Structure formats: structure tokens, C-alpha cells
Amino acid sequence: MALLPVSELEASIAVIRPALRDLRFWAGLLGLGLVLGVAGPFGTLDNLPLLPRLAYWTTMILITGPVGFLLSHTTRRRLQSAGLPRLPASFLSGTLMGLPIAALVLGLNALFLDPGDVALGEGELALAIVFLSATVSPVITLIFFSPPDLPPPAAPTHARADSATPRLLRRIPADLHGPLVALTAIDHYTEVVTTKGRHQILLRFSDAVAESAPTLGLRIHRSHWVALDQIATARRDGLRAIVTLTDGSERPVSRTHVLALEQAGYLPPR
């Protein structure tokens, strides 16, 4: 996979910041490090005394845990934006990110351990780390990024006929107020894109779509909504389609929403 753009890493940091501030996250990492320190896997039980072993494993987990969390989450977002469901995307991103994490672990081992302190060879250790990363990533996703239990939405309030400003704009900074371009679901956040920029808000995607009125738009994917007047072009991609927006970005159209795009006149019927 291509290197992750800095902008995507920054966006991921903004999304995962609440999790990084959650004591459960750090308590879980510390607890895992202590358990591994006591258990002494990969030959460290026989080759390292208790205190150095505890220090090694807690340090290793506290370093690699947040790094892997950030990289895996960023990769999962890209996979989800391409249409892959959340849990398969988590498993695949965990597998992919196990490779740089394995490289980091091997580098730290070379700095702080003597040869033979870890019983596994480098290749075997790397495979074990990839397996653990692929296993842990979906668990972390379920714990920290499952949609919250929310009460049923209240009956929608109809906007005044003479109002042209979507209520959704009140939730983003004033310097980003402008015509809506698109909405994208990212976990239980929604990214609001206007002609002035973009901003993520903690709001259920369906509620954000409701608050986009009176802007005329179309839900083209379970994670994407676009304003009709911001669609520049649309093209077919097999059974699916892709729309290009006026800001130059592209959004996937799922098979179930292609018909709506045809009916809106943006794609010729088959």
C-alpha cells in the first residue's frame, strides 16, 4: 500500500484522540505489557530476569501499541472509504500494519536485547506480530469505534421555507460556512465538506443528512452523501459508479444507489 498521506494521518489523529485520552486504552496496554512480562513469551522467560522482562514488555507494548493503533486506523478508514465493511477492513488493516510494527519491534530488539534473548528467529517473530496485529485490530475497532447506543431520533423538524442555510452548518466553524459539497461517515463521526473546507463532527451520519436540508442531495453510498449541485461528472465502474465533485474529489456509488443516480439524470440508464 502506498505511504499514507500526512493529511490522512492528521485526520486519524483527530478521530482517535478521544480514544487516546481514554484510560481504558492505556490501562489495557499496560495490563497487556505486565501479563506478557510475567508470562515471558518468545523465550524471554528463560533469558531475562523478572524486572528487566517486565520493563521490556511494558515498554514495547506502550511504544508499538499507539503507533499500530494510529496506522491501522488510518488504513482502515481508507479501506472503508473504498467500500470494504468495517470489520473486514479492520482485519486487513491490522494485517498490513503488522509489517511496520514487526520492523519496529525487530529494531528495538536489536538495540536493547542481546542475541538469543528472544527464542524465535526474526522471520518467525515477524509472522507472530502480524498475526497478533490482525487479531487485535478488529477488537480495538469494536471497543472504541462501534456506533454508540443512541436514543431514537426525534421527529424531524422541517426547515422554514424561506431558510436556505442548512442547520448542519451551525455545527462547524464559521469560516467553513458555505454551500455543502458532501458528507462522509467515519465511525460515529461525520465529515462535513463545504466549498470552504472540511470538518469532522461527532454526529450520526443519518442525522447529518437530515440536517443538510434544504440543500438538495443524494445518498450514494451507506457512507457518502453528495449535494446534487456539486456533482461535476459521474461514470460507471462495473455495477457501481463514481461521482466527481466540483472540488475534484471522487466518491463511490454503491450498486444499490446507482439507480437513484440514473433517475436524477447524472447517469444514462443501462
UniProtKB/TrEMBL annotation:
Gene Ontology MF terms in the entry: DNA binding
Pfam families membership: LytTR (PF04397)
Keyword vocabulary terms for this entry: Membrane, Transmembrane, Transmembrane helix
Source domain of life: Bacteria
Keyword Phosphoprotein part of the UniProt annotation: no
Membrane-spanning ranges: 23-42, 54-71, 91-113, 125-145
Coiled coil: none
Domain (HTH LytTR-type): residue spans on this chain: 185-267
Name of the protein in its database record: LytTR family transcriptional regulator
Organism: Paragemmobacter kunshanensis
